[in-house]
Design brief:
By secondary structure, the protein is α+β, with helices and mostly antiparallel strands. It has one domain: 2-Layer Sandwich (YaeB-like fold), CATH 3.30.2310. It is 34% helix and 28% strand. It has 3 helices and 5 strands. The protein has a 5-stranded mixed beta sheet. Strand 4 and strand 5 form a beta hairpin. The longest helix has 16 residues, at 18-33. The protein starts with a strand and ends with a helix.
Length: 87
């Protein structure tokens, strides 16, 4: 499976504290085994992220991604709920 990283995702990822980055890696491993594992709370998004989906990294951190028909993924953004959704 091909995974692409948007420039936004890369910038946000670099700013994360090490424990959160480790959690991102852990959850991506779970995601790659089973993208609908209940631990991830994988769900579709609306508004400015219509067409994207979100998975939980921690109680407050999310990873937003797009899945293309060929099965490849684009990681769009990562951050806290307020950082990503402005709430």
């Amino acid at each position: 499976m091909d995974i692409h990283y948007s420039s936004r995702f890369r910038k946000q990822y670099k700013k994360l504290m090490k424990p959160i980055r480790l959690k991102v890696h852990e959850r991506v491993r779970v995601f790659l085994k089973n993208e609908f594992d209940p631990l991830l709370d994988n769900h579709p998004l609306q508004g400015k992220y219509v067409g994207c989906r979100s998975i939980d990294i921690t109680g407050n951190y999310r990873l937003i991604y797009e899945k293309y028909p060929d099965g490849s993924l684009n990681f769009v953004a990562v951050g806290t709920h307020p950082q990503l959704y402005g709430k």
